[in-house]
C-alpha cells in the first residue's frame, strides 16, 4: 500500500514539475546551440582572415621570387656572354 501511495505521489509531482523541467532543459539546449553557432561563426571568420593573410603573403612573395628569378637569369646571360667573349678573345690571340 505504501508503495502505491509513493508511486501516486511521484506521478503527481512529475505531472506538476516535469513540464517546467522540460522547458528549462529545452531553453538550456537552445542557449547551448546558440553559443556553439556563435563560436563556429567566430572560428570560421578567423579562418577566413588567416587564409586572406596567407594569400596576400604568397602573392607578395611571388612577385619577389619572379624579380629574383629575372635577376638570376640576367646574371646567367651576362656570365655566358662574358665567357663567349673571353673564348673568342683567346682564339684570336
Secondary structure layout:
Elements: H1 2-92
Write up this protein.
The chain is an all-alpha fold and 93 residues long. It has 1 helix and no strands. It is rod-shaped and about 130 Å long. It starts with a helix and ends with a helix. The mean pLDDT is 87.
Distance between the termini: 129 Å
Count of individual helical segments = 1
Record field, number of beta strands:
0
Shape: rod-shaped
Averaged pLDDT:
87
The percent range for strand residues is under 5%
Order of secondary-structure elements: H
Kindly summarize this structure in a few lines.
With 93 residues, this protein is an all-alpha fold. It is built from 1 helix and no strands.
List keywords for this structure.
mainly alpha, 93 residues, single chain, 1 helix
Amino acid at each position: 500500500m505504501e508503495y502505491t501511495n509513493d508511486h501516486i505521489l511521484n506521478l503527481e509531482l512529475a505531472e506538476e514539475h516535469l513540464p517546467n523541467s522540460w522547458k528549462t532543459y529545452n531553453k538550456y539546449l537552445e542557449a547551448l546551440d546558440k553559443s556553439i553557432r556563435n563560436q563556429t561563426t567566430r572560428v570560421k571568420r578567423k579562418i577566413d582572415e588567416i587564409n586572406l593573410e596567407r594569400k596576400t603573403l604568397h602573392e607578395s612573395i611571388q612577385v619577389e621570387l619572379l624579380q629574383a628569378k629575372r635577376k638570376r637569369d640576367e646574371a646567367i646571360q651576362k656570365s655566358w656572354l662574358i665567357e663567349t667573349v673571353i673564348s673568342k678573345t683567346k682564339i684570336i690571340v
